[in-house]
Amino acid sequence: MAKSLRAKTKRLHRARKRTEGVYAATEAARLHRLHSKLKAVTDSAVPEREDEDEDELAEGEERTEGAAAAPDAMDTDPTASSSTARISTHGPRNSRREQWRASKGLVPRPKAKGNGMNRQGGIAARRKAGRSLRRR
Hints:
Blueprint: H1 8-20, H2 24-45, H3 51-59, H4 78-83, H5 96-103
Helix pairs in contact: 1-2
């Protein structure tokens, strides 16, 4: 039987190649690159706190800002959200077949025969429903 990618032996051999084999240098370079990116993001995202804030909290005064003071708080600036353009997810998305037909000068979607409606008033199917005539 074939072994899946989640098989223990496959995982063991891949891990061994990453640590000792030909891919060790590539894996080390990748880890170093990711580590430096992550470190740059965390250093720029977390501002250093001042001693005054700690003194205020120690005296028992509550913060008026609330959840907005947390470093992982969500920014709800209305100007920032209006500047980003919305992406439409409605409407047809051209398949590879439709792109090819358009490049050849053909109609991307050929029109349905007749009026395109079935007897009940719905959209007609391209082929008849049911089992195919050829037995397999």
